Amino acid sequence: MTSEPRQTITLTPEAWQAFQDRLYERDDRLELRIPDSAVKRDEAVDPYVLSGHAEALRSNDVDGDVWGTLEDLDESAADEEEAWAKIVAFYQGRGCVLVRVTGLDEPEDWLFTEALARRLGLMNGAAAG
Description:
Blueprint: E1 7-11, H1 13-21, E2 23-26, E3 29-32, H2 47-50, E4 55-58, H3 66-72, H4 80-92, E5 96-101, E6 108-113, H5 114-119
């Protein structure tokens, strides 16, 4: 466990979409496109591709397995909110970053490694484009 404060990044739906629009995948590596650069069609990133690099256990676009993940952590919970809180605490305790999209009808929460979040500009606000 780390003694550093837990990191949560909150984005609006527009900032989240702008972030996703700037992503591309090349050779199984997720990258942030430089403005006005071209990306080949097969390098485009949709939520499913993004979920190969980050945990999307609560997303409208990707079916996550909150209960299966909780079981993998040898934890139990009374409801999905408690289960999600335990999962987030587990991952953040290991240096991961929670990216939460606000203003939507359904939760949109993703867990990124800190290194990936930093490289993709989430840590310094560059994600909003």
